[in-house]
Amino acid sequence: MTEVAFHFNAPDKLAYVCRLARKATRHDVRVLITASRQDLQRLDRLLWALGPSDFVAHCMDDADEEMRQASAVLLATDPLSCDPRDLLVNLGDAVPQGFEQFARLVEVVSQSDSADRSRARERWRHYAAQGYAIVRHDLVLRGGD
To answer: Do the beta carbons of residue 42 and residue 68 sit within 8 Å?
Structure first.
């Protein structure tokens, strides 16, 4: 069964996901990040702007197959269109289709966006109703990491 975790109170969701992706890839975890096309394009730019020692090999889901296989992090609007990886990170508003194919799912929730927090509560209820034990990480209490 997929391990579901919610990372709450992210001051900047995209910056947090950059750090999360960097940390995961340093542990040889292959990551798929799902979000709207607009958010993925912003995330792509942020990942390219990381310093040389923090580089995260990544690509968008429309890259050729060789590039997708070589990249530790894949950015995709539709997780079902991609081969499952070790970790699925959801920045979208809804429960991602096919999340059950992943070993782990991380839902990242904003600190200040009340609409984002409300949608996260709906997703939490969905996972709980399906019998998933949910791990909660409060990023304010943990200092943002």
So the answer is: no
